[in-house]
Amino acid sequence: MLTWADQVVFEKTGKHLSSLQEAILMGVLSSQKYGDIANQYNCTEPHVRKAASELWQVISEEVGEVVNKSNLRSTFGRIQLNNSIHSAYFWKDVKIENISYCGNSTKPPKAKQNAPPTATKNQQYSIIKPQIDLRDAPELATFDNRTSELNTLKQSILEKQSRMIAILGISGMGKSAIARHLVEQIKTEFDCIIWRSLRSFSCLETTLKELIQFLSNHTELNLPDDLDGQLAILLECLRDRRCLIILDDVQCLFKDGQLVGNYQPEYQNYSKFFKLIGKLTHNSCLLFNSWEPPLEVVTLSGESGLTQIFSLTGLGQKATQILKNQGLQNEENYPELINLFRGNPLYLKLANHLIKQLFGGKISQYISYKPVCLGDELTQILQQQYQRLSELEKEAIAFLSSHPQPVLLSQLLGQFSDTPNQLFKVLLSLERRGLIEKQNLDNEMVFTVDSVMQNYILSGCD
Ligand SMILES: Nc1ncnc2c1ncn2[C@@H]1O[C@H](COP(=O)(O)OP(=O)(O)OP(=O)(O)O)[C@@H](O)[C@H]1O
Ligand SMILES: [Mg+2]
């Protein structure tokens, strides 16, 4: 690889690879930070950054796609070299674990003496496209105003090299949509990408089999019977290549009628899966969408930056675009409608249909009848969320819903005076589900219930 890089740099600049550039290449391939390379090389970090940036530019021009610190490994992993610069030869000067190279096993050419570089024209190799399976993913649809959220996610995956990211948010907030758009923006940074939904309640064994089959590129698999053995093989795949796994609808693993994050008995072993991916070293990333977080992921996110929880909240007034696109009248009432539905794109789309069907598109008339009519589809969605709650959560949320103003913690403690400890757990659980919000007001916490859920409860839950 160094010989190849040297040839490329020589051809473009007339100079051989400097020893600092060699150190940068080897360091980055070993996941070192620029600061570490600078220390080892006895120079400053800005100096390393400058040399690296020049190097990435030259390599990017050569291979025809953007190459940088975060995708060097995966890009090199995908370089398919022809017979004149064979892949085994390409990696011969790199002694780093977990680098996989592509190509078959013909012998590498003899190294030329005094290396006037051999020609390295673009036709001599090509970049293998990442292997992608998005059968379970939604279509790329119109998607407004999530630029900053997309940038944060991109930064977590590409710059911070997060191993596991949970996108959390209530139904319809746009978790699947943002994950789908994110894949589109970062797909060239990975060797393989697979999207699976757990909406059809897939047991861990089935999920693992599908993932390993795809990531290892094997149609016939002889997997060990025990879960630990299967997880070890998955981990090998995640170390061998840079993989992006997207698991959608993770909330399907959890039980109804209990506090947040309690697995259904048959899915309890997913806990081990999340812990393993979050804790052990690999170069890949698991991104998952859920209404609520697995508890071990909450713990891991507190321990290290390599596991991140990303809460997807409403679009706020940026949701105006959705209402405009749908041709809704009374623009002066948009803010109230958006607040009522918390900027949730799906809720707003469903409300838009209702407003057109029942009120000829007049928002002002729709919102004048309180609690507002939610319609069958939205009621069904809210019912699903409500059924997930424990009995005490239902009581607490009913109490909060009956108050138009935020409720003080002391008020709640007065109402649930027999079970204060249970109340604290309930409040945490409801907050993790995104159904209540808390605020510090004059040194006391106050709680508000999600306005759409409040509307559902005030309508008698039907
Ligand atoms: N930023 C956006 N702009 C326009 N439409 C959006 C946006 N985000 C999501 N949508 C649309 O809103 C609907 C709900 O989005 P999506 O299915 O991604 O939600 P979700 O959070 O995954 O919901 P669930 O938890 O039920 O799976 C979809 O029709 C989607 O296209
Ligand atoms: Mg979804």
Features:
462 residues; alpha/beta; six-stranded parallel β-sheet; three-stranded antiparallel β-sheet; 11 strands; elongated; binds adenosine-5'-triphosphate; binds magnesium ion
Q: Within the largest sheet, what's the order of strands?
A: 3-5-6-7-4-8
Shape: elongated
- Which runs of at least 5 residues are low in confidence (pLDDT < 50)? 96-123
Mean pLDDT: 87
Instruction: Report strand %.
Output: 5-15%
Describe the largest sheet: 6 strands, parallel
Helix content: 40-55%
Structural class: alpha/beta
Q: What small molecules are bound in this structure? A: adenosine-5'-triphosphate, magnesium ion
Radius of gyration: 27 Å
- The first-to-last residue Cα distance is 65 Å
Query: What's the helix count?
Result: 21
Counting DSSP E segments of at least 2 residues, the number of strands comes to 11
